[in-house]
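I am still getting used to backbone structure tokens and would like to learn alongside you. Please make up or recall a protein chain and show it to me in full. Would you write everything just below, so we can both look at the same thing?
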Amino acid sequence: MKFEGIYTPAITPLDESGQIDRKAFAAVLESLIEAKVHGIIVGGSTGEYYAQTNQERFDLAAYAKEVIGNRLPLIVGTGATRTEDSVEYAKAAKEIGADAILVSTPPYALPTERENAVHALTVDRAANMPIMLYNYPARMGVMMGEEYFSRVGKSKNVVAIKESSGEMANLHLLARKFPHIALSCGWDDQALEFFAWGARSWVCAGSNFLPKEHVALYEACVVEKNFDKGRAIMSAMLPLMDFLECGKFVQSIKHGCEIIGLKAGSVRAPLRPLNSDEKRTLETVVATLKRTVGKITSGANRHA
């Protein structure tokens, strides 16, 4: 499997009682398919996997596959503190016919690079399907580095990495020493730099509610190789990325979905929703972004 384009880590809508709203979840998936993103991820942190039971995660992935069918690639997250649990999520992903799995570091455990590699390869052996690694030390506590990549990179199934360390040195390490592991941007405000270093995909939560704008940046940089246009789009997107890092990431993504008419509901404890001031600020940021990117892309079309 080749990872190219925009991959959306889908939100998990909740009803008023805090239960998963399957009808609203299906609507989110359909909106992404209609917007022509290139793939969908379920069971990621944007989907609040950490606040779901094992059974909810199994059921949500199976339902996503039922809704999506073969219209878009489906990637299922296997994140868990116990390797045994990650193995079960990986096996279930294979059973439902998912296209790939997302393999991260077990949070809180703080494994060494060798231990972390053994974790990933154990999950790999259990599923034997394409893997996108997920390096996010801010959440997991440790960095995937050269020793880790040297070990896991020997598996034919390890085809890509969502690189979310924010460390440009790790981007350079991957691009130069491990070019067979396809780079995918996982640190939103570095998307332009990732594309300049050869990344051909971007896993971006903001595409839940601004898919066309995220696709526009990918197309400008990767398809058209027009980095002047890409810089202009990126500049317009940075205020959103700054807002998303205010400490209420999932809440902001969910309110963004509400802005465009999708039913998202609240977030599960211990998180709390945005307050009214935060909602108004996000609404202003989104409106400005859409207007600015719209002008850039329509202007480019006129001059094409």
